[in-house]
Design brief:
By secondary structure, the chain is of the alpha/beta class. The protein is built from 13 helices and twelve strands. It has a seven-stranded parallel beta sheet with strand order 8-7-6-9-10-11-12, sandwiched between helices. A five-stranded parallel beta sheet has the order 2-1-3-4-5, sandwiched between helices. The longest helix has 19 residues. This is D-glycerate dehydrogenase.
Length: 323
């Protein structure tokens, strides 16, 4: 019997690939772009892979599992989220699904979130655009007035691993007032940072900055819509580094256009890679291309964790990050 075969749907940080190549026969899609759906299914049908390492842009569904065949044991999703995977279909086919959470990834997303919060408060992107456009003619006491962060109320929607890190960094450095909403209480945040758990309605009404850190589930899709945006202060800002469909982009576009809120910063979008045209035009919107976890440390950790999950399952052991 030959070595088990692994297919990696896009080049990733080499540490995990090297780990897999020590034990298995590994094929990597050679182009650094999303593999076309037809090409992915063709490869799965042509080769009996025991494991597939997928990127969150791949749709892992009934058609995927049928193409892969009965020998497929694990799909290791190279992401913390797993909304691209049909878990019921995976269960029917007896395929283990794993993801890649970790301290490095949590820290990277938390840092990116904080960077966006400060960029909004101090209008950094607007200032950069202003200088690059040649508009800067000298100091002006009323030019691009922003807002201080100290003393403000920050509302954290989802106080899990990433949300807690955001709270810790902000409390340690700026002693902001912290409120949060979560399915369960977060004793660490309450004891160490003085955070108070409130309902979503109260959080939106009270916060100067709202940052989203919930997974994409049926219950969280469009968690922030027109009604929720109307609850926010007109001086408040919204940051989303979780998943795009958590926010109704139609509602957000309308709120920004009507100046219902002061601005928004988005690393994720409802219909990626499509971005509403208004987001690109409004000066009070900051957009980044889904790069909150795009650090050397985080990508290496994701690669390593995905490989460890595959090695565990093909070795007959339970993986650390089974979904």
């Amino acid at each position: 019997m030959g070595k088990p075969r692994i297919f990696i749907t896009r080049p990733i940080a080499p540490v995990g690939v090297a780990m897999l190549k020590k034990k298995f026969q590994v094929d990597v899609y050679g182009k650094d772009r999303v593999i076309p759906r037809a090409e992915l299914l063709r490869r799965l049908k042509a080769t009996p892979y025991d494991a597939v390492l997928t990127i969150l842009t791949e749709r892992v569904d009934e058609v995927f599992f049928a193409a892969a065949g009965p020998q497929l044991k694990i799909v290791a999703n190279y992401a913390v989220g797993f909304n691209n995977v049909d878990l019921e279909a995976a269960k029917r086919h007896g395929v283990v699904i794993t993801n890649t959470p970790g301290d490095e990834i949590n820290e990277s997303v938390a840092e990116h979130t904080i960077a966006l919060l400060f960029a909004l408060a101090h209008r950094l992107v607007e200032g950069d655009d202003y200088v690059r456009a040649g508009k800067y003619k000298g100091w002006d006491p009323s030019l691009l007035i922003g807002t201080d962060f100290i003393g403000k109320t920050v509302g954290v929607v989802g106080a899990g691993r990433i949300g807690t890190r955001v709270m810790r960094r902000l409390y340690d450095g700026f002693h902001v007032k912290l409120i949060y909403t979560n399915e369960t209480g977060n004793r660490e945040a309450e004891k160490q940072f003085g955070a108070r758990r409130v309902g979503l309605k109260e959080l939106l009404q009270r916060s100067d900055f709202v940052t989203l850190h919930v997974p994409l589930l049926p219950s969280t899709r469009h968690l922030i819509g027109a009604a929720e945006l109307k609850l926010m202060k007109k001086t408040a800002y919204l940051v989303n580094t979780s998943r795009g469909p958590i926010v109704s982009e139609k509602a957000l576009v309308a709120a920004l256009k009507r100046k219902r809120i002061a601005g928004a910063a988005l690393d994720v979008f409802e219909h990626e890679p499509s971005v509403p045209a208004l987001f690109k035009k409004l000066p009070n919107v900051i957009t980044t291309p889904h790069i909150a976890s795009a650090t050397i440390e985080a990508r290496q950790a994701m690669s390593r964790v995905a490989a460890q999950n595959i090695i565990a399952v093909l070795g007959g052991r339970r993986p650390k990050n089974r979904i």
